[in-house]
Design the sequence.
């Protein structure tokens, strides 16, 4: 009898070995499993405005519909003229005078354009200076082309603004480019003019390409000033990336743009390579391109969301208030974008803690409360004590979270399995429940007090997170067995502890 032929394992390309995008990685896959099992997951891990009820301005939708009849053919590889010209006008308004429609490429989101720009630039062994933390596509787009992402630190102590001297010290003879994400994801930092001038100066002195990811360019809070990098570069090539996904709440359209400015004469070969790659993919989504001109002209509705009284402003304020009152959490107030990058001070937890692990923390949050956050280590940082949440939740999403948080009303939630990371991970797959040597802390509730519904709803996830601070040191685990009945988010941080019950007393 013929032996059945074994089919050899199909291996992925080696180029992908070190490529990571954990925001949609293992945790997100686990969230999908839970969803398939019927659970509702509140996804605070991704900056997806539409998922939280934000809509693109109606005029953009009308522009697409009105032009659908001419959206069947491929467009020029750089995009339709009207869209590119609108981007040029925006640049001119900002003081970038030396660009024309020829210098603009419309792409399927900034994501496609980042990949394309890096593919046209990099050879194996080249280096690119990338911020840490970064939006991880930047690191991935470098690594995937056999180049090395050299991370320059943006430290919380400096408001997550990089130290230009430190950045310059990392330049080598293989360095090709500096990436600047401003306003920043995940930290919300908005770089001061002086820092940007210094970074642009490095690009000019060291003949580097300056890549400015400005997708959050108009999402600013409390008077923060956005300085476009292109206004600061004359003798270096500057690549400005922006698009419709965030400021215009239209990420599903997949429309972004890349503008070349500054010195271009020396970069002809590179610019032709970008054009070649754009041609190879023919063009970007055409219907969406028709929204660009409308989006960039007239009243900018993002201002209504980010000014005092606006939804993003209120959510941000609520998160800051909640974190500010916590003994265990801290955050550098985001001055732009739509995230809070929150630090967990595990050492301040009762009993002191060693080895707080952001991934285990996020997994536990997901498993037990079906709230998904992005662990800080997903953003290419060496530390593991941060997590990122979006500032996007709306009333409905918040209500859902709130429902989950009411676990303390008369019921004791089951303790998760073992106290260490490994056992938490294994629980994710086996879903078994067992109690290890743990300490359970019950929090008392405070009466509801006045607070705006907006603050209130935004705070739910933060309250939950505070309540589930956990430790993994010394085989001890601290969990919350109750939920704060207070509608005042800020009470959660003062965490009055009613009693501490030995784990044995509450094992399930
Ligand atoms: N750059 C940054 C800093 C981002 O945060 C994101 C998305 O979250 C992107 C680029 C990708 O944007 P797009 O939807 O245009 O591909």
Sequence:
């Amino acid at each position: 009898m013929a032996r059945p032929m074994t089919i050899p394992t199909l291996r992925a390309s080696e180029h992908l070995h070190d490529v990571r995008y954990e925001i949609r990685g293992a945790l997100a896959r686990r969230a999908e499993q839970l969803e398939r099992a019927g659970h509702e997951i509140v996804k605070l891990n991704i900056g997806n405005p539409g998922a939280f009820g934000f809509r693109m301005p109606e005029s953009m939708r009308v522009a697409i519909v009105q032009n659908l009849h001419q959206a069947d053919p491929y467009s020029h590889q750089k995009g339709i003229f009207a869209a590119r010209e609108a981007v040029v006008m925006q640049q001119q308004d900002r003081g970038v005078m030396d660009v024309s429609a020829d210098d603009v490429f419309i792409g399927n989101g900034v994501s496609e354009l980042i990949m394309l720009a890096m593919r046209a630039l990099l050879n194996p062994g080249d280096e690119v200076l990338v911020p840490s933390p970064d939006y991880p596509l930047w690191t991935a787009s470098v690594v995937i082309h056999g180049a090395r992402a050299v991370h320059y630190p943006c430290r919380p102590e400096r408001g997550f603004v990089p130290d230009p001297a430190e950045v310059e010290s990392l330049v080598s003879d293989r360095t090709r480019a500096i990436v600047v994400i401003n306003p920043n994801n995940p930290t919300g930092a908005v770089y001061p003019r002086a820092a940007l001038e210094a970074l642009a100066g490095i690009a000019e002195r060291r003949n580097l390409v300056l890549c400015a990811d400005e997708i959050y360019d108009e999402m600013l809070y409390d008077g923060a000033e956005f300085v476009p990098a292109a206004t600061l570069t004359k003798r270096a090539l500057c690549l400005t990336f922006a698009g419709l996904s965030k400021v215009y709440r239209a990420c599903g359209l997949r429309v972004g743009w890349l503008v070349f400015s500054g010195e271009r004469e020396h970069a002809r070969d590179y610019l032709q390579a970008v054009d070649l790659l754009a041609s190879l993919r023919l063009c970007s989504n055409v219907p969406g391109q028709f929204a660009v001109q409308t989006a960039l002209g007239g009243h900018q509705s993002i201002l209504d969301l980010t000014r005092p009284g606006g939804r993003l402003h209120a959510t941000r304020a609520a998160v800051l208030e909640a974190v500010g009152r916590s003994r265990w959490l801290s955050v550098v107030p985001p001055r732009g974008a739509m995230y809070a990058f929150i630090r967990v001070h595990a050492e301040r937890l009762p009993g002191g803690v060693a080895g707080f692990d952001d991934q285990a923390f996020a997994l536990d949050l997901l498993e037990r409360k079906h709230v998904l956050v992005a662990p800080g280590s997903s953003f290419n940082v060496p530390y593991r004590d941060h997590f990122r949440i979006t500032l996007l939740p709306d009333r409905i999403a918040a209500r859902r979270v709130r429902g989950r948080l009411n676990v303390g009303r008369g019921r004791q939630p089951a303790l998760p399995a073992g106290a260490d990371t490994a056992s938490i991970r294994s629980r994710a797959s086996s879903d078994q429940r067992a109690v290890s040597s743990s300490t359970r802390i019950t929090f008392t509730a405070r009466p509801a007090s006045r607070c705006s519904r907006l603050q209130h709803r935004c705070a739910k996830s933060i309250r939950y997170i505070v309540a589930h601070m956990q430790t993994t040191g010394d085989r001890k685990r601290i969990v919350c067995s109750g939920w704060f009945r207070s509608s005042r988010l800020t009470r959660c941080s003062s965490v009055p502890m009613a009693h501490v019950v030995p784990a044995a007393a509450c094992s399930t």
Residues 339 and 390 are 4 Å apart (CA to CA).
